[in-house]
């Protein structure tokens, strides 16, 4: 049956729908245009850094911190990103987020799970950045929750998709200054009361689809730490970088 279905519906490239050998793969052209983060990367936010070396080892190297993370205090401990938010990587994120393509969460969540592997610790709780109920109703699903579910499954960790909630609706972050972005998210996120006991003294792996300034991750991490989490680490599918 599976072979017959493959003849009728052959595997297609995630980026351009060209024929590929297996499901969840990219064709050679899209693979070249998809900027995976490997080698040296900032141990706080996952942005690529000049040089070569083992990206995993950078978690213990205090010098592996980007200029932004030196200027802006990050409440989380470590961070990782799977892709750069450009080219095919950006296209895939947008398709998942706004193109009604939850089917992409499987392969993209797999990539994120690989990137997050160095952050995983026994007993960690995995949670996504939440959507406001009105936005969730419009979008039908929380793309960050689909990705976090995949990461929790791959690494055998507890998944709490409703650990965080939006206290209020916030305006879009686009076209805002750095200061305005942080002010827009200030006290916007909280920990759901019924889950507070589950994170007391435990580490949390916070998942989102894209990180730009880090304002959203900051608001989420601060809420988790205030609720008693021991540490917070972050992993995102794509990291926006400066030109």
UniProtKB/TrEMBL annotation:
Pfam family, one: DZR_2
InterPro entries: ComF/GntX_DNA_util-trans (IPR051910), DZR_2 (IPR044005), PRTase-like (IPR029057), PRTase_dom (IPR000836)
Domain Phosphoribosyltransferase: 188-239
Limits of the Double zinc ribbon domain: 5-70
Similarity remark: Belongs to the ComF/GntX family.
Official protein name in the record: ComF family protein
Provenance organism: Paracoccus aurantiacus
């Amino acid at each position: 049956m599976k072979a017959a279905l493959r003849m009728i519906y052959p595997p297609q490239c995630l980026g351009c729908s060209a024929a590929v050998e297996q499901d969840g793969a990219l064709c050679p052209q899209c693979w070249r245009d998809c900027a995976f983060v490997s080698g040296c990367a900032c141990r706080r936010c996952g942005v690529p850094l000049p040089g070569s070396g083992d990206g995993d080892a950078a978690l213990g190297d205090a010098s592996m911190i980007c200029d932004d993370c030196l200027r802006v205090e990050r409440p989380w401990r470590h961070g990782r990103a799977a892709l750069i938010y450009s080219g095919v990587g950006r296209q895939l994120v947008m398709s998942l987020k706004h193109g009604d393509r939850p089917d992409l969460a499987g392969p993209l969540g797999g990539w994120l799970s690989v990137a997050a592997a160095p952050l995983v610790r026994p007993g960690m709780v995995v949670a996504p950045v939440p959507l406001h109920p009105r936005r969730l109703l419009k979008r039908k699903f929380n793309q960050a929750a689909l990705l976090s579910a995949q990461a929790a499954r791959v690494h055998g960790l507890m998944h709490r998709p409703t650990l965080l909630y939006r206290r209020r609706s916030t305006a879009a972050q686009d076209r805002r200054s750095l200061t305005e972005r942080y002010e827009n998210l200030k006290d916007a996120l909280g920990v759901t009361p019924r889950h507070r006991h589950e994170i007391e003294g435990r580490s949390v792996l916070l998942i989102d689809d894209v990180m730009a300034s880090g304002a959203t991750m900051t608001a989420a991490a601060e809420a988790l730490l205030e609720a008693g989490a021991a540490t917070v680490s972050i992993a995102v599918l794509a990291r926006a970088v400066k030109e």
